[in-house]
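Budget justification aside, the reviewers requested a transparent look at the raw inputs and outputs of the sequence design task funded under Objective 1. We therefore reproduce one unedited record. The lines immediately below are the structure tokens for a 409-residue chain.
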């Protein structure tokens, strides 16, 4: 009997659990998943909570609802991985051995990495929306806020869902317009990037949207500290931006267990082969989703595309063969732009977002790099798709590799 151990039961870990459970011979394999939490969050939905579009009940379900029968589920924190011994130590003192390991421990915000960020104004005038606690606290604040200087700041890259901060800015513009407060709210988008987004062509388009919506862009801003007393964020080159309300996207880091295991980089992300999804230096350890250090987006769609590649490479390695599949960095993101419209981008390591139709070349129904109501509907429908299709590891007609069909060069 061989042991397959999956660490983390978030999006990526749950998808892999379901894929392997339906494919591996139960008489030959023992499958175990480890996670310390009982609640599964639909994290893309956190964006909508501050604006009253979603409530907490829309984004919360028990993790056990998505675990197939016949697998071992261990509710415990991970102390550390001992890859040379093929063992994992848990915080409850138990120890697990494995033949193959899949690390899907995700990422989390680390506001204490920035001086003053989690100070006296935390959850008073400074909020995140990358946690359920932050999104709910911000929702309560916005119910009574009558305006002032709203600053949206990305502390550093990489972050989960790189377009989410832009979506927050666009939704804030829509939200305050509908409340007849837009002329009382000054919105500033502050980023360490040289433009609005990581990809130049999409960045130009999204930058134009910021300008059109009267949202000021402050680029190349590397935050050093937050001045709680004077309500300012200050960069390392001593530029200052005043705020009345600061919506922060704090530093994102991998799980602390990765640091204790000595397997991560300075942000606890695991060096991973960007094509095979095998951890650098280890033949029997695969990494998926936000836990990797890949130059691809940390997003649910990316984890889904990675899942198919990882599964096929796992089968190859299990047979003693070289990994047969290569992940191309495929990412697919709906970008909510407010007022019931959205944009869709589709790209990978080598190809920037292009205009066109998706997923069908002629009819779409979604339009790439174009603001449409249909793209907004796609964004809103994704919640159903996430709960009912994606988490269950269901095979889809959409290929994991990016297709050029329907795209215009």
């Amino acid at each position: 009997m061989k042991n397959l151990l999956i660490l983390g039961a978030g999006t990526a870990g749950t998808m892999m659990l379901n894929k392997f459970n339906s494919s591996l011979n139960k008489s030959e394999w023992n499958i175990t998943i480890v996670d310390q939490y009982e609640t599964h969050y639909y994290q893309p939905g956190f964006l909508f909570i501050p604006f009253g579009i979603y409530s907490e009940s829309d984004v919360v379900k028990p993790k056990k609802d998505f675990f197939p029968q016949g697998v071992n589920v261990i509710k415990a924190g991970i102390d550390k991985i001992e890859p040379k011994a093929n063992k994992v130590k848990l915080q409850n003192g138990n120890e697990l051995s494995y033949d193959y390991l899949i690390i899907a421990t995700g990422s989390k915000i680390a506001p204490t990495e920035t001086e003053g960020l989690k100070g006296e104004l935390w959850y008073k005038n400074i909020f995140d929306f990358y946690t359920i606690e932050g999104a709910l606290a911000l929702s309560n604040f916005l119910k009574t806020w009558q305006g002032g200087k709203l600053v949206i700041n990305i502390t550093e890259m990489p972050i989960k869902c790189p377009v989410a901060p832009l979506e927050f800015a666009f939704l804030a513009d829509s939200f305050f317009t509908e409340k007849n407060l837009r002329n009382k709210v000054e919105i500033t988008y502050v980023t360490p990037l040289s433009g609005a987004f990581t990809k130049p062509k999409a960045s130009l388009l999204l930058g134009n949207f910021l300008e059109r919506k009267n949202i000021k862009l402050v680029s190349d801003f590397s935050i050093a500290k937050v001045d709680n007393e004077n309500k300012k964020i200050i960069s390392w080159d001593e530029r200052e931006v005043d705020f009345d309300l600061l919506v922060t996207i704090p530093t994102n880091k991998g799980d602390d267990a990765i640091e204790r295991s000595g397997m991560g980089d300075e942000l606890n992300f695991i060096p991973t082969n960007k094509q095979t999804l095998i951890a650098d230096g280890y033949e029997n350890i695969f990494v998926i989703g936000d836990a990797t250090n890949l130059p691809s987006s940390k997003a649910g769609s990316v984890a889904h595309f990675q899942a198919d590649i990882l599964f096929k490479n796992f089968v190859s390695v299990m047979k003693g063969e070289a990994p047969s599949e290569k992940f191309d960095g495929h990412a697919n993101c709906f970008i909510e732009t407010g007022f019931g419209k959205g944009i869709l981008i589709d790209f990978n390591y080598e190809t920037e977002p292009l205009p066109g139709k998706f997923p069908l070349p002629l009819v779409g129904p979604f339009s790439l790099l174009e603001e449409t109501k249909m793209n907004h509907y796609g964004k809103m429908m994704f919640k159903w798709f996430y709960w009912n299709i994606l988490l269950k590891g269901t095979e889809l007609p959409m290929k994991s590799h990016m297709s050029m069909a329907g795209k215009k060069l």
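The chain has three domains: 2-108+253-318, 110-251, 331-390. The CA atoms of residues 308 and 400 lie 7 Å apart. Computational costs for records of this kind are itemized in the attached budget.
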